[in-house]
Beta-1,4-galactosyltransferase (Oryzias sinensis), 382 residues
Amino acid sequence: MTRLMLGRTLERICKGVLLLCLLHFLIMMILYFDVYSQRFDLFSRFNNGRNGSRNNVSGAGSGHHYYYYNLSRPNTTLASYLATGEQLAPTMQPESNQTPSPKPLPPCPENPPGLVGRLLIEFSSQMTMERVQKENPNVTEGGRYSPPDCRPRWKVAIIIPFRHRENHLKYWLHYLHPILRRQKIDYGIYIINQLGEDTFNRAKLLNIGYMEAQKDGEYDCFIFSDVDLIPMDDRNLYHCYDQPRHFAIAMDKFGFRLPYAGYFGGVSGLSKKQFLKINGFPNEYWGWGGEDDDIYNRITLNGMKVSRPDVRIGRYRMIKHERDKHNEPNPQRFNKIQNTKHTMKKDGISSLTYKLLQIKRFPLYTNISVEIGKPPPRPIKG
């Protein structure tokens, strides 16, 4: 009896031990798989972080970043992993595509440092437009240029009255483009071409140049130049001044002297305000001579004075040529000059009429072809 009870007790103890062992085994398995799952998830996050960094570099051009997460764990949502990803990779957010605004350019110096001074001007070598274009690669279509490293005070339209002077124009462009670029001028060049063979009218073409240049850009300074005059010193700065400017004060044909005190011919410049104050230039000077003296009178009659450079700087060389056909001296010019006070209010930019035929932009200049009419019949001598 005693042995039977002892055997049953031992049997129960053995079953209890087996149950404990089985329970222990189950607990160990649960813990093992739990730890393994956590380690696998951590490893996945680490790899995703590395992949995100690589994608951040390789996808920099497209601006997209890709992250991969282990969603196999129970009770895990996409939102929780996205939140975890933001915490793990805060530097992987898309970068802004905005570029910093450029710094404003400084004002151009009053005396540009690249000026040469006295220049050697000659017209014996052959000149072509192709050569001039190669010499000035920074000049844009229409003869426009603006310095890239500073902000000019003036925006200058250079206006040339023109007819049948193609050879002179090549030399003018050859010399003037480099001079103007060294002077740090923001400029455009306009050739006002009078079509037809009627009497030439220089001052009226200059008025037309002012009107057409105004349509092409916001110019506030206008320089009027004959096509056969080349400055011999690049310190003769082509911009506007407080008073109307006469640049060509010492031409070689006059022995490098001013021919008379009221001379305003060749090359001159006025600001927009000054030009409008004198009602522009006269339209009724047909043929050669007189219009520059009329302009001088308009300036002085409106309370302004002519400014000029130093005679050593304002030297010009003229391209020699014969008198143009249909540009004979105007026999009425002396009478007209004496009446400037009475005619300047009604004859000028306010009374300008013309027919615009063509605007063509070449690499080095803008050509504007116009018809300007004919001179009125001359009074019959009694």
